TrEMBL record:
Enzyme class: transferase
PANTHER family: SENSOR HISTIDINE KINASE CPXA
Organism field: Caldithrix abyssi
CDD domains: HAMP, HisKA
Keyword Transmembrane found: yes
The protein, known as: histidine kinase
Transmembrane regions: 20-43, 55-76, 173-193
Regions annotated as coiled coil: 230-257
Domain HAMP as annotated: residue spans: 197-249
Main location as per UniProt: membrane
Localization annotation: Cell membrane
EC number: 2.7.13.3
């Protein structure tokens, strides 16, 4: 009962459902009316034909059976025959006339000897074959008159006539068709209501979902399991919500990078020289202290802390660096080999599967070098014990570069945040490396993806365009070396 009430409430609240309902119910009503009129029209014709055939058969039997009785003046037999035929509810009169129109016998005995001289009778008396005629009674009833001539050899001695009405039959047919049409229309109203609801409800859910998106709730989704356009629309909207959420997160991350760049430029300007001086003074003090001095361990901590601060400012400077690219022809395979050659202290084996047909691209060699180096170092640090790193390149519609490790992997809930500044899974990490990597790839009009499974490893995939007319820019001027 609550479901029906809620359905009716939603029906009155939904303009779209009401329009669908009125449209479909109107179409069904017109269809039912058309079919009913057509059925009534053809059925009346068919019934009239059946009644006419029946009347002709009865009239023919009456003519044939009354022949001998007329010749023998046996009017009692003729009257009994007429009385047996007049029991039908649709029969209005039965009579046998002589050639002058005088009644020989009739269902109303008082008509015997009465002479009919009307036009229908004259036509019936002169017609040499059976005849169907129509007339209106005094009450407006439609009467059909069937006449069959009676012959003795080749001489006509009379005419058998039966008058009948099909109005009652038509009324019964009309009532039946109206009842069936009414039932069909009621059923169609229910079906139209259900059908309109099945269309309007998913659309209303889609509208509500769009409102949720407008309010910033991109976690919202709708569950419409239909194998049609509405189901496909719902599925695409659910995908769109995830894409929008990802784009917004990327935009926030990029804005964070911009803010970080501005902030980094500001603090580095004020901290770089003091930190360098502090590092030099701490290192000089550390060197002058004897190895057995109790202050030696403190100076060591000061030197390490100063070095860490200087490294942090350097990494921040890398990210805060202008997006201006100094491009030249860069062979990705050669750049990977150089990075691997410079990294001589990797803790696990590194295998290279480089596609020899990878073309050179226009890129900032130093920035790509820094990004690849960072990814390989991260892969090396992610593997503990036996393991390996695999670097692959492939040239399809774009250059694909994959750096895979067999480490512990990254939890799924952290995959969406690993490129954010200051996010790190390392105890001593700054969380700036992957943020810098992503900024470099985006600056080259590429994209980077990460796939990871716990206890199986992680793969970073970089896609770089390499069309001959490729223009690399991130909003600033590009300078070729």
């Amino acid at each position: 009962m609550m479901t029906e009430k809620s359905s009716l409430k939603r029906f009155f609240a939904s303009k779209l459902q009401r329009r669908f309902f009125l449209y479909f119910s109107g179409v069904v009503l017109m269809t039912v009316l058309f079919i009913s009129v057509a059925v009534y029209h053809f059925q009346t014709k068919m019934l009239l034909k059946q009644v006419q055939n029946k009347a002709f058969s009865l009239t023919s039997i009456l003519a044939y059976s009354s022949l001998n009785a007329i010749l023998l003046d046996d009017y009692i037999t003729v009257q009994m025959l007429i009385d047996s035929m007049s029991e039908g509810s649709d029969i209005r009169s039965i009579a046998i006339l002589d050639t002058a129109g005088c009644v020989i016998a009739a269902d109303q005995p008082g008509l015997r000897g009465f002479v009919f001289s009307d036009a229908l009778t004259k036509k019936a008396l002169t017609n040499n074959i059976f005849l169907h005629q129509r007339e209106k009674s005094d009450t407006g009833e439609e009467i059909w008159d069937t006449a069959v001539p009676i012959y003795n050899l080749n001489k006509r001695i009379g005419t058998a006539r039966i008058k009948y009405s099909v109005d009652d039959t038509y009324k019964g047919l009309l009532q039946t068709i109206l009842l069936i049409g009414l039932i069909a229309f009621i059923i169609s109203l229910v079906i139209s209501f259900r059908f309109s609801a099945s269309i309007s409800r998913p659309i209303a859910d889609v509208v509500d979902l769009a409102k949720e998106y407008g309010n910033g709730n991109f976690d919202a989704s709708i569950d419409i399991r239909r194998d049609d356009e509405l189901g496909h629309l719902a599925m695409e909207l659910n995908k769109l919500s995830r894409k929008l959420q990802k784009l917004i997160e990327e935009k926030i991350a990029n804005e964070n990078l911009i803010v970080l760049g501005e902030f980094g430029s500001f603090i580095i300007h004020d901290l770089k020289n003091p930190l360098s001086g502090l590092h030099l003074l701490a290192d000089g003090l550390h060197r002058k202290l004897p190895d057995d001095s109790p202050l030696k361990k403190y100076s060591t901590e000061i030197v390490l802390a100063a070095q860490k601060l200087e490294d942090f400012t350097r990494r921040t400077l890398d990210i805060a660096r202008s997006s201006k690219l100094y491009v030249s022809d860069v062979n990705i395979n050669e750049l990977i080999r150089q990075v691997v050659q410079d990294l001589k202290k990797l803790s696990v084996p590194l295998f290279m599967e480089l596609d020899p047909v990878v073309p050179a691209i226009k890129a900032d060699r130093q920035m790509l070098y820094m990004a690849l180096k960072n990814l390989i170092i991260n892969a090396d640090e992610a593997v503990e014990g036996d393991g390996k790193i695999i670097v692959k390149t492939q040239a399809l519609k774009e250059i694909i570069l994959k750096i895979s490790d067999t480490g512990d992997g990254i939890p799924q809930e952290r995959l969406e945040t690993i490129f954010r500044p200051f996010f790190s899974m390392k105890d001593k990490g700054h969380g700036l490396g992957l943020a810098m990597v992503k900024k470099v790839i985006i600056a080259h009009q590429g994209r980077i993806e990460v796939h990871s499974k716990l206890r199986e490893g992680t793969t970073f995939t970089i896609y770089l365009p390499y069309t001959p007319t490729n223009t690399i820019s991130s909003g600033n001027a590009i300078k070729d070396n």
